[in-house]
Design a protein that fits this description.
The chain is of the alpha/beta class and about 280 residues long. It is built from eleven helices and eight strands. An eight-stranded parallel β-barrel has the order 1-2-3-4-5-6-7-8, surrounded by five helices. The N and C termini lie far apart (about 65 Å).
Length: about 280
């Protein structure tokens, strides 16, 4: 194994470190290679690829086979960050056997080191079955996108006492089930801070404030490649969408104006003039 490769124990040790965990999503080989040149801790091949890469309106339609293809692709380009595969909708809900089989595919066929599973106390037994099978699991509570229909949309969770208490209980149950970290999505920052203080495993926030042990964002949101408006919690560090449009616009203009290809971008024959077919006879 690459000596620089981040591991599950390394991520867990960050709970007691002042160095924040930094995670991003990636969905293909090219972006994985770029991220591999940085000091990123975790790459999550998120089921968000349903929306980002496949054009669906939610994460729900993406399949195991589609996820496997993308995790394999990212694995070929990523050699340093911990690689986590997102368990897609209906790949683990039916039974422990189904969950172990599908999670095992991510590890065995696609090269992931861990999987991420949405759900709190109600999924704790399923997650324990995975960890008992020596499959590392990253938990995910708060705003869980696979529950978008039940939640009635992508709304901040835990804003009242009852819901906040349930999310706290979810975190404790996930810890007992053996997760190595917990993603806290779309919850108030003070609630995220309380959970981070109470649990023994690292918390990774997305729309959960500054008190978590780490942060994760969707790569395309960070780079300004999203086609729609971003959530409030997203900070855009570049606007590559505009750059892509500008570059493609310039290409179209130069091809139609016959400025490209030019001599610099064309091959030349070694002889000054090729013989015609008639000259050869």
């Amino acid at each position: 194994m690459n000596k620089n490769k981040k591991t599950v124990p390394m991520i867990m040790e960050r709970k007691h470190s002042s160095k924040k965990i930094v995670a991003l999503t990636a969905y293909d080989y090219s972006f994985a290679r770029l991220l591999d040149t940085t000091d990123l801790d975790i790459i999550l091949v998120g089921d968000s690829l349903a929306m980002v890469s496949l054009g669906h309106e939610t994460t729900l339609p993406v399949t195991m086979d589609e996820m496997i293809i993308h995790v394999r692709s990212v694995n070929r380009g990523s050699h340093n960050a911990l690689l986590v595969a997102d368990m897609p909708f209906m790949s683990y809900q039916v039974s422990d056997e189904q969950a172990i089989t599908n999670a095992g595919r991510f590890i065995q066929e696609a090269g992931a080191q861990a999987v991420k599973v949405e759900g709190g106390a109600r999924m704790a037994g399923r997650i324990k079955a995975l960890t008992d099978a020596d499959i590392p699991v990253m938990g995910h509570i708060g705003l869980t996108p696979q529950s978008v229909n039940k939640l009635g949309g992508y709304r901040v969770q835990g804003k009242n006492y009852k819901d906040a208490r349930q999310i706290k209980q979810d975190a404790r149950k996930l810890q007992e089930a053996g997760v190595f970290s917990i993603v806290l999505e779309g919850i108030p920052d003070d609630l995220a801070g309380e959970i981070t203080q109470e649990v023994r495993v690292p918390t990774i926030g997305i729309g959960a404030g500054v008190q978590c042990n780490g942060q994760i964002l969707v790569l395309h949101d960070l780079l300004g490649l999203g086609m729609d408006s971003s959530p409030k919690f997203v900070k855009q560090y570049a606007n590559l969408g505009d750059e892509v449009q500008r570059a493609v616009g310039n290409y179209i203009q130069e091809v139609r104006g016959e400025y490209f290809p030019d001599e610099e971008h064309s091959y030349k024959s070694k002889t000054h003039k090729l013989k015609s077919v008639s000259d050869a006879h």
